[in-house]
Write a structure and sequence with these properties.
Blueprint: E1 3-7, H1 12-20, E2 27-32, E3 43-47, H2 53-60, E4 65-68, H3 78-98, E5 103-109, H4 133-152, E6 156-161, H5 173-176, H6 180-192, E7 200-203, H7 232-238, H8 247-250
Parallel strand pairs: 1-2, 1-4, 2-3, 4-5, 5-6, 6-7
Length: 264
């Protein structure tokens, strides 16, 4: 690719992508509303409120691929989620349609299916069960991606990211953990494959404890190599395992399922 756009580049995943994806394009175009520091020689910095349609269209122009991490990434009041995760996703897909249909990685979330219990094995055909307003916005994004693929041919990998941190932070994350190395491998495959479509992909490493089945997207050739189980002893030493009646032991979305509505 000549130019790869990374939205939300000031966030945790965005910073990882900025460090790890420079080999994928001649230029990285980095976008956020927060400070992005100085641009490296192969970087372009664009400050963008995703709710601003004209600015989003200018941001997408000239890009061959998009890694969309931008928007609200946790539970927040609806007006904030609406601007970034609803209007912002529409603006992004309209901009893609008008600018040659660049392939997109959409950062969906396990919170799109967070009300499923942990005894249920899910695959790409499983119904969504969002565990909050943030999860609802990710279901919306997946539906927007599907419609723009069917109607206009925009290809998107909808990645239901589990927990992409250097290490699992609690017992639930032993199942949801996605290593940075495995995420980079997935991003590389998404942009390398000749025909992508609009798949639902569960973003988790090859964890011993697992609730998700990516068998329907085996055509991607993505083979995660890391396993959160190596951190079990460290997690056990750091904290007690939650009780059987804890949300973190019942729901795939953990405590998000019992969180209230955040008012403005």
């Amino acid at each position: 690719m000549k130019r790869l756009l990374i939205t939300g580049a000031a966030g945790g995943l965005g910073k990882m992508a900025r460090e790890r994806l420079s080999h994928m394009a001649d230029f990285l175009r980095l976008s956020d509303i927060d400070d992005l520091g100085e641009a490296a020689p192969n970087e372009e910095i664009v400050y963008c409120d995703l709710g601003d349609k004209a600015v989003v269209e200018a941001m997408v122009a000239g890009c061959d691929g998009i890694v969309h991490f931008g928007g609200i990434s946790i539970e927040k009041p609806w007006d904030l989620i609406m601007n970034a995760n609803i209007n912002g996703v529409f603006n992004l897909y309209e901009a893609a349609r008008k600018n040659g249909n660049p392939r997109i990685i959409f950062a969906s979330s396990n919170h799109a299916i967070g009300f499923h219990d942990q005894t249920t094995k899910l695959d790409a055909s499983s119904p969504t069960r969002p565990d909050g307003l943030y999860g609802v916005s990710k279901c919306f994004g997946e539906s927007m991606a599907s419609m723009y693929h069917d109607k206009f041919g925009v290809e998107t990998a909808c990645v239901r990211i589990g927990s992409c941190f250097p290490e699992p932070r609690n017992h639930r994350m032993l199942a949801t953990w996605l290593s940075a190395d495995d995420f980079v491998r997935l991003i590389e495959r998404v942009f390398a494959i000749s025909r992508l479509g609009c798949p639902i992909i569960y973003g988790a490493s090859d964890n011993t404890m697992s609730w998700w089945d990516n068998g329907q997207v085996s055509y991607l050739g993505w083979k995660p190599q890391d396993n959160g189980e190596i951190y079990r002893a460290k997690v056990d030493a750091a904290m007690a395992q939650p009780g059987a009646d804890s949300a973190d032991m019942i729901y795939q979305g953990g405590f998000f399922a019992t969180d209230g509505i955040h008012e403005s």
